[in-house]
Amino acid sequence: MTPQLPQNEDLFEHYRFVVEKGQQALRIDKYLMNFIENATRNKIQAAAKDGSIFVNDTPVKSNYKVKPNDVITVKFEHPPHEHLLVGEDITIDIVYEDDDLLVVNKPAGMVVHPGHGNYSGTLINALIFHFDNLPKNSSDRPGLVHRIDKDTSGLLVVAKTEHAMNHLSNQFAEKTSEREYLALVWGNLNEDSGTIEGNIGRHPKNRLQNTVFEGDDAYKGKPAVTHYNVVERLGYVTLVSCKLETGRTHQIRVHMKHISHTLFNDERYGGDAILKGTTFTKYKQFVDNAFKVLPRQALHAKTLGFEHPTTGEFMRFSSEIPDDMQQCIEKWRSYAKHQA
Fold this sequence. Notes:
Layout: E1 12-18, E2 26-27, H1 28-33, H2 41-49, E3 53-55, E4 58-59, E5 65-66, E6 71-76, E7 94-97, E8 101-106, H3 123-130, E9 153-159, H4 162-173, E10 178-186, E11 193-197, E12 199-202, E13 210-213, E14 225-234, E15 237-244, H5 251-258, H6 281-293, E16 299-307, E17 314-318, H7 323-339
């Protein structure tokens, strides 16, 4: 007889998943690897061994095979948000600051806010160390008006007062703010400019990804609009400028993949494979070297514009492309010239 969940009030739910109706039988350790960020199979197996993984409120081993409609929870003795909001003396690259707000240039590799697997070293940890009494947004995150992905570099605006938080958040919601990104994508785009529209939601089979839902499935996602312009054609890759009308999670990464131009070295969406080019060994070596120069997705939040919440002045900030991405672009530029 399988042991039932102990009546332990000290257990806290960290993750909860309901298995999709069409899911085939799959070991739970393999299943959870697709749903928990930064989780290795060893970590998941250790959690199962500790009795921390439950299916329908019953603890299971790592070889349990999930079935449709199973309710999976992962529970530990410490609260999921314990120690998340601890100030840390981390240097912040502040582009602009006044009494209402600051504009930060975030380096690639820095997580914006604490979450599962990233409990320290985040921008939030740095902000609450350097600034007192930052207002909280609707998700209880101090100062954050918007966010960018861990491995995306570039500009963010941070609110220092409640008024600034409300004013700036409304601008993002009403699409009056300005956000331009530079992305290096696989392939040579057919058009010099265009607009990608497609509702974005969680991928049904991989919760670490988002995807575009169309037609009868459109209701599964939220409306998303990305405008793009070709900046430079570099043979098998293209440098593009992307302007966001909406701010969905992974929006540019998902939309560019949707039109078959996945971001260069975007591991999560398959851009860390050679998607365009030749079969020559020298070309493979060249791409591998480009991956090493830029060990992340080629995406930089270059320009940020908004109306100042107190003065009403429209402010626009721009940041330089970071060295790793610039070096990668230069490599492709040289390669394209050599091919020409």
